[in-house]
Amino acid sequence: MRIHWPRRVFAQVLLTQVAITTGVVMLVTGLFLAPLSHELDEQAMRRALSIAQTTAAVPGLVDQLLSTKPSPTGPIQAEAERIRRATGALYVVVMDTRGVRWSHTETDRISEPVSTDPSTALAGREIMQIDIGTLGRSARAKVPLRNRTGAVVGAVSVGIAYKSVRQGLLGTIPALLQYAGAALAAGVLATLAVSRRLHRRTHGLAFADISALLDEREAMLHSIREAVLALDSRGRIRLLNDEAQRLLELTPDAVGRPLGEVLPPGRTTEVLAGRVDGADLLTVSRGRVLIANRMPTGDGGAVVTLRDRTELELLGRELDSTHGLLDALRAQDHEHANRLHTLLGLLELGRHEAAVEFVTEVADCQRASAEQVAERVNDPLLSALLVGKSAVAAERGASLLVSPTTRLPDVVVDPRDLVTVLGNLIDNALDVATLVEVELLAEGTTAVLRVSDNGPGVPVAMREQIFTEGWSTKESPAHRERGLGLALVRRLAERYGGAARVTARAGGGAVFTVVLPEALADRQLTEVGESQ
């Protein structure tokens, strides 16, 4: 009958642990018994040696060996038997230099040569060994017997029955097995407890199921287009999928490191670490607009998901720009309609000269406004933005002025970034003010953008908070979130190595200043390139 290996994790662990525990107990028992047997043999031989040394030191034994003959009734036999009975030895044999016994437990063997080689003891050296003699296997010792001058006149051989050593060893086995059984039982109980815990933690799944789930999880995490970041209870990253690496610009070696070590201080780190509460939290990281959600786990960690809203945000801003353009076109349509009505009235009245003067004045005014902006701002995108925003401001009943000190003749490295910064600042100003003034300056390769307004201004306590993602005093439109414009402005400035700040305007209002180092191309290099 074939025995099937169980599928569930806890059953496999239980059987494996029982097998391991049993094997370890058997191995330890064997390793314990082997040196124990040697130690008992060593003790028996040393006991035999001690008895032999004591016998050799008995007063008068040497004189009796030299003055008498071997006899079953002789004094040496009597003394040897007394010592044997007192010590429990198997035999105590006294021999002369020829190896002839003068004492033995079997008296008929007295006067016969000993059965084992006595040469070592008769040569003056002590010896211990396990050997087989006429009385069977024994632990024995031989010591030389010396006279007063130190000369060897015989030897003493003492044996301890080997069966007593074996019985001592066997006598320890039951107690040893009891301890081994207790250890095995404790190991089984501990294994059972661990297996039950594993059963609860693995929900009764088999190893194959767990492996399949892990493979599926890895495939899912690295294939989805949403960033997933898992943190442990100490704030260290323990999982990072491909999208999270891309959005946060991290490398795979960030796994295992604290969050604050791989990300710079700021709102993004605060949101990921859970120090900002809420759902669908807005944050800007590396110029990207992200939506973050954080879900705590049972072990004190958390799983954070991030969605890239950069493209959606750009589309929303393009939609805002389109709305602004429509408003500007509508305003121009109204203005042109009024002018056409005026021109029609002048023609119907027959005042042709006045009509010509009116058309000339309107055309010159429009041309002068656009030409003035183009003369001061060399980049076409920025100049077009200023002209378009002027029309939007007029439609809202506000004024957008370009400062007379504005000078930006240099080539802009990335006009889109400056359009983003300037457009956000102008839009924010037009929402709260009726007069907005724009100043653009070039300081070497550094662009300085300054937008001032006559609005309510920004309190000192809020001058840092207004650059935080998601913070706004205005209601969000349906197509996108508010609270990102100024955050994007500051992130762009920091990406260039510059800064964005707000101060008070003389006479009331606010002044937003953005410094963008290396935003302008080097003028000398540009002139050299054009000449070539």
Topology:
Blueprint: H1 9-56, H2 61-67, H3 75-87, E1 91-96, H4 119-122, E2 127-133, E3 136-146, E4 152-161, H5 162-201, H6 207-223, E5 227-231, E6 237-240, H7 242-248, H8 259-262, H9 267-272, E7 281-285, E8 288-296, E9 302-308, H10 310-348, H11 352-376, H12 380-395, E10 399-402, H13 415-432, E11 435-443, E12 446-453, H14 485-495, E13 499-504, E14 510-516, H15 523-531
Helix pairs in contact: 1-5, 10-11, 10-12, 11-12, 12-13, 13-14
Explain the overall architecture.
The strands form three sheets. A five-stranded antiparallel beta sheet has the order 6-5-9-8-7. A five-stranded mixed beta sheet has the order 10-11-12-14-13, with helices on one face. The protein has a four-stranded antiparallel beta sheet with strand order 1-4-3-2. It is rod-shaped, with a radius of gyration of 53 Å. 28% of the residues are buried. The chain contains 15 helices and 14 strands. The protein folds into three domains: 160 residues, PAS domain (Beta-Lactamase, 2-Layer Sandwich), CATH 3.30.450; 85 residues, PAS domain (Beta-Lactamase, 2-Layer Sandwich), CATH 3.30.450.20; 220 residues, 2-Layer Sandwich (Heat Shock Protein 90).
Low-confidence stretches: 476-482, 525-532
Sheet with most strands: strand arrangement = 6-5-9-8-7
CATH superfamily of the largest domain: Histidine kinase-like ATPase, C-terminal domain
Task: Indicate how many domains the architecture comprises.
Answer: 3
**CATH architecture descriptor text of the largest domain:** 2-Layer Sandwich
Q: Enter the CATH topology name of the largest domain.
A: Heat Shock Protein 90
Compute the CA-based radius of gyration.
53 Å
Given this structure, which CATH class of the largest domain is correct? Alpha Beta
Total strand segments:
14
Q: Counting H and I runs of at least 4 residues, what is the number of helices? A: 15
Q: Indicate the proportion of strand residues.
A: 15-25%
| H and E order | HHHEHEEEHHEEHHHEEEHHHEHEEHEEH
How much helix is in the residues? 40-55%
Shape: rod-shaped
Mean pLDDT: 77
Secondary structural class: alpha+beta
Largest sheet: 5 strands, antiparallel
N-to-C span = 92 Å
